[in-house]
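new request in #modeling-help
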Amino acid sequence: MTALPASTQRKLGLVIDLDTCVGCHACVISCKGWNTENYGAPLSDQEPYGKDPSGTFLNRVHSYEVQPLATSDAVQPAAQLVHFPKSCLHCEDAPCVTVCPTGASYKRVEDGIVLVNEADCIGCGLCAWACPYGAREMDAEEGVMKKCTLCVDRIYNENLPEVDRVPVCVRTCPAGARHFGDFADPDSHVSKLTAERGGFDLMPEQGTKPVNKYLPPRARDQLDEAPQIDILAPFLDTVAEEPTGFVAWLDRALSKV
Amino acid sequence: MHPAPSVIVFTTLSGLGFGLLFWLGTGITTPTGWTAFAFFAIGYILAVGGLIASTFHLGHPERALKAFTQWRTSWLSREGCAAVAALIIMALYGAGLVFFDQRWAALGWLGAALCLVVTFTTAMIYAQMKTVPRWRTWLTPALLLMISLAGGALLAGQVTLTLVLLPIAALIQIAWWMRGDGALVRSGTNLATATGLGDIGDPRAFEPPHTGTNYLLREFVHVVGRRHSRKLRAIAFVFGYVLPVLLLGLPGGHITAALAVICHVAGISASRWLFFAEAEHVVGLYYGKRSA
């Protein structure tokens, strides 16, 4: 049934640290790789080497420029560049699930993961319409809806070493900007991070109650405001103010010419 | 939103077809024999033709039967169930008129009610979308229902009824356009809430995820020039509402009536194209496409 569960035993999801993400797109590539080779239909590309390439991705990294407001201290504050990975937020009130006419979309009671049963999907696209985040993409080759599975085929996979039993985007991130865990447990790594760093929801006004949280970028260091400590300066100081010897003679001779 | 021809054809023709079947069901006109056959055939061709067109945009139309299962939560599923129920009941009612010269009134009223339910559920598929503020209003079902009723009356040859209903539909259309133009801004969803970066300052989309296009941009980010949209609105309004009313005022019987129907369908199709093409899905914000 496409009715949402009243509550889920666990709330698995991601914390994405906008302060740490360097925008390398490694999570995008690893996601495409893992999910093309594993759960469900592969993520196809159309004209990958042609003049109008496009393809299915479950995770995309946007980049935004934020211009802080001018203050009396910082008249012209520097703009901040924020890399912004976006994938399914596995919402508690997932609007994509209830609109599904066939029951292909569902939210799991045991861990809250939102999945698509591709054998039941008619490819009507309504779930992608209902998602405000653009987390669902219709695969142009298979005609079924694709979305982040939170690597459901990794996190419970006992054939993998324990260190690999996390979503592949989390495992890959070289900056440690992505964290995976259970938000229903207040003592989990992700719950603590969210509490400590003021994790927030995307588009809270849409009422989707996303499970995934984003951590805000920290304020950038202000170099021109901090006291200047230049450790090289003493070594680069002028050694002699007045020339002596041959250089002094040359200086005098040239001045007379 | 991408104005998919299959969905425009579906909502326009099915709305008209179920509108005609509604009036036949109410018994406001009770043709019998071959006349009844002609009326019901037109109603079914429009309604069923539209429904068939709507399956063209499915990735897997062969699994369409599964869409009847989730009526408890899904407006699309409810629409499918209502459409099948309405078509079966109206077929029985029509058989009575065509073959037995009998009007089974109870069956007719039940069928008529189901025809309204079909159009209402179609409208709710759009009106439920919080992600498309332009659609999310009770005016959307009001508009689609009134267009269906007015168009149905026009097809059923009910001149007085059409002259009452079509102007009402026109007024709702104007209200729907006027409300829709500020809907995205009023919804409170913008790039600041989408990214959560509004506390720092004014966010701006700096670089998209890919240099090329993707499904999201093709499906949800369709931008119509304001100038074209104004022109198309005028065309839709004149053809869909004004000309049919004027033509019905002229003497000329079936010829002016047929012209009125053709104008109406053309105008409503244009209006329906705009319904999709002008609708701003909030995902466009992430791509910096919605800064107005």
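bot summary: The domain at 5-287 of chain B is CATH 1.20.1630.10 (Formate dehydrogenase/DMSO reductase fold).
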